[in-house]
């Protein structure tokens, strides 16, 4: 069922605009009617419509569930319109699952902040290339401040006319009598004797506007920290959290996270140092394994020697002589002697290897130190960059968390107001 209703959507060629509504349409209320519990800014879905009487019923949106129903007559109440989209200013204080934003050249920093902080999950910005040719110009437009000043700061047509006449006369007389011509600045930027305050305010505002309109590109007017901050602001929460650990190593969940040392950075920026450090690490690992094996076989040798001595003393003279001659060997003593003999053979192989590894580690450490000396300046510069990136990322993440807390607090207050019938 479709009904045609007259709505107060603004004047259009001297007449009120008309629109068609049907059950299921989204509707936004643009006026307040306390008798019907309708408040400016409420948004809902049409659930009932009488084409003959113009009576409309809608269910308002509510956080976490179905909102309350409201009803009005299109003939008596005209403060409603389609609610599929709204202005940024209508969206202040609201929290939505997803937002879809249409960028225009009129965006400023305050509007950008409101538009980009309404979503819970995602926000998509749609930009025409005729409005912003690239990301740099888009960021500049979205970050511009608003020029606000009292009407006193701006010249009227009556005030500009005498200045324009004087400038025209001065230009015409320049060719006839150069000695009588005095330098005249542009009328808008000249400091008039009659209104020096106005001229001063106008000049300051014009300089500010020119600075805002000039495009900013990395390496020209923006510092590296500003470029880095702008890049981090565009990241989602997961990427931003990863960026906060740009200067950290280890696992934060296991409490093993620590600051990244310059040695780790040198491995990343200098392959020669990385290779030297890897060789030293491998040799130290091999030496540790060799030392562990030596300790193991030394323990086996000492254990079997002690057990064999105890068994030898308990055997007596005759059994000792028979075991020694081979006529009748003692089985337990034979096991101890075999274990001791095997351990001594392994130790005979491991001891020379330990000595060789000690010499190789010394040479590798010298080569690693020389490679680090060459890589240290570049590694130190890269570490400073990573530390700055991590610091800026942590600042941005803290700001985002504060914004989320503030947005949640505002939403709770708004929900309490709506529960009392006071919200808009």
Q: Assign an overall shape.
A: elongated
Total strands? 11
Strand order in the sheet with the most strands: 6-5-4-3-7
Describe the main β-sheet briefly.
Answer: 5 strands, antiparallel
Beta-strand percentage? 15-25%
For the record, give the distance between the C-alpha atoms at the N and C termini, rounded to a whole number: 29 Å
Which stretches are low in confidence, meaning pLDDT under 50 for 5 or more residues running?
6-16, 178-194, 216-221
Instruction: Calculate the mean pLDDT score and round it.
Output: 78
Give helix % range: 40-55%
- Estimated radius of gyration: 42 Å
Structural class: alpha+beta
**In oligomeric terms, what are we looking at?**
single chain
Order of helices and strands: EEEEEEEEHEHHHHHEEHHHH
The helix tally amounts to: 10
Task: Please provide a written account of the structure.
The chain is built from ten helices and eleven strands. It has 424 residues and is an alpha+beta fold. Among the domains are: 84 residues, SH3 type barrels (Roll), CATH 2.30.30.30; 78 residues, no CATH class; 129 residues. The strands form four sheets. Strands 6-5-4-3-7 form a five-stranded antiparallel sheet, with no helix packed on it. The chain has a two-stranded antiparallel ribbon with strand order 1-2. A two-stranded parallel sheet has the order 8-9. It is elongated, with a radius of gyration of 42 Å. The two termini are 29 Å apart. 11% of the residues are buried. About 8% of the residues have low confidence.
